[in-house]
Amino acid sequence: MFTNVRFLREVSHDTKARNKLKNLLILACRLLALFFLVMAFAQPFIPQDNATVKKGEKIVSIWVDNSFSMDAVGANGSLLDEVKKDAREIVAAYNATDRFQLLTNDFEGRHQRLLSREEFLELLEEVKPSPAVRNVSEVVRRQQDLLNTTPEIAQENKQAFLLSDFQQTISDYGRIDVDTSIQFREIIASAQNKNNLYIDSVWFESPVRKINSPEAMHVRIRSRSEVDMENVPMRLYINGQAKTPASFSVSANGTTDTILYFTVREPGLQQGMIEINDYPVTFDDQFYFSFTVLKNIPVLAIEPAESMTPVFTEAHYLKTLFATDSAFVFTETDEGKIDYNSFANYRFIIVNSLKSISSGLANELRKFVDNGGSIMLFPGKNADVASYNALLNPLGLSGYGTIDTVQQPVDHLNFQHPLYQGVFERTTGNMDLPLAGDHYRILSSSRSREEELMRMRNGDMFLASYRTGKGNVYLSAVGLYGEFGNLPRHALFVPTLYQAALFSQPQNELFYTISDNKPVDLGNVGAIGENPFHLTDEAKKYDVIPSHTVQDGKTILDVQRIVVDPGNYLVNLDNKMLTGISFNYDRTESDMRVFGKDEIIAQHEAAGLKNFSVLDKGPQGL
Fold this sequence. Notes:
Elements: H1 6-42, E1 59-64, E2 73-74, E3 77-78, H2 79-92, E4 99-103, H3 117-125, H4 136-147, E5 158-164, E6 183-188, E7 196-204, E8 214-224, E9 229-238, E10 241-242, E11 246-250, E12 255-263, E13 268-275, E14 286-293, E15 297-303, H5 317-322, E16 328-334, E17 348-352, H6 359-370, E18 374-378, H7 385-392, E19 400-404, E20 408-413, E21 435-436, E22 439-442, E23 449-456, E24 461-468, E25 471-476, H8 493-502, E26 512-513, E27 520-523, E28 533-537, E29 542-544, E30 547-551, E31 554-558, E32 567-573, E33 576-584, H9 597-607, E34 612-615
Parallel strand pairs: 1-4, 1-5, 5-6, 6-34, 15-16, 15-17, 17-18, 18-25, 26-33
Antiparallel strand pairs: 2-3, 7-8, 8-12, 9-10, 9-11, 9-13, 13-14, 19-22, 20-21, 20-23, 23-24, 24-25, 27-31, 28-29, 28-32, 30-31, 32-33
């Protein structure tokens, strides 16, 4: 019944305008949130008018070593508290108009500017122990950079102080650039007890992890104590469960390696921790590690088209070996029906008796090896050697040479190679070894980590192993079909293929070191989508989103500065756990051996540092 729709049009325009305004406000809020986030990380500051250094004023840089070794006890409390007290006395000795820089091991942005006395003292109170480790040369370079930005200041007005325990591991005076325009003074903080016992590193005896198979983990313990220590208890935890306790003994200032044995009963991620008790330095008494045990290993065999037909008369040696073993999931595929997208699902790929390798297959196999997979090549009869080498040469391997039709027996087996360790109960000099009929020469490679597995009597390699990228490549001089000899029917064929498949399990880092800036390589994790990765530790209620990049199909996490505490962490994507990674403190600080005054002065003289001197501390301080 409305004769005029003007009002309806007005309501419509009014709604659109409101929506547009709302959208603009939301956009502005988001931009402001992003701006403030960037500013928080940039840590900018507004210089005060009176912060300008004037002629005649002094600028003083003071390094307060806040590494973990400064937690040791001195004559008046912890060494860190002592050097903070020394820093207060230093600034109190200067005029109120002088300017100061506070430098710590953290190299924070707010410590890269000149401060008034009051600002310096406020920041000094906030200094806490840090896992960061800095060499003396790094600190001096930072101090020089700041002090030399004000060239109008007289030479005698540029001064720097170094307050530290001066551990031998960080005191690299020989790497300091001589700059006589700055006077450097050192104040030594001395601990009453310099003894320390710590876990240096851990590693497995074998690179292969298996369910229900005994594992041997080596643990290296270092002593920086003046007394021998005997029967020190050590505890091992796997996924939070205590394993059989152990003990060790170590001589004064010595090193000992002990072995912990345990068995993994369930497949999947395993996160462990080894612990000892040592006082007063305790930050290095726990060591964290992570590894994965696969339930079964997926194996792919790429076969020539004719071998997949019913009229093919050769025996299917690979299928006979792998298809009946529950430790493997075996798949065969025709060379003309390869699904390259499925390569990420396999750990071990066998290229069996192909006449030639296409450029597409070669490219995908190289990616597979770079991402940590293992491949084994058995050449085909009348093989196109050039196509094989087009795959191998970019991986750093010389590849195959011409074919040799002279029959040759294998007369050497590399018993020391990890592939054959634990295979033989005993070894003899007259062991029965395979016989090669027609065979291709394997060219020696100087660009890769080449290891000979078997050698023929004429000196040519029969079977070779190469470590390239993050994966392994195995080359056989003979094929499995045709007049190539008796390898597939020989007793060594089974353990060689079996072990190579077992060794194809992912060899991820057992642990990472906090503050060494090493990126975390997750390998090929498939499609990521828009959801971020999460690095979590439920016990600590820790959940952060690390940045990541994708390089050549591999996902790289950047955890720099976001992991500050040691422990075992999980990497999640789309609420699904991908893997686990472990972090430990840098062990550089664990070596409590320090330089005394005379030794530091000798270092000055050897490095030509005439502008460096050591200040003596009295019972009441400076």
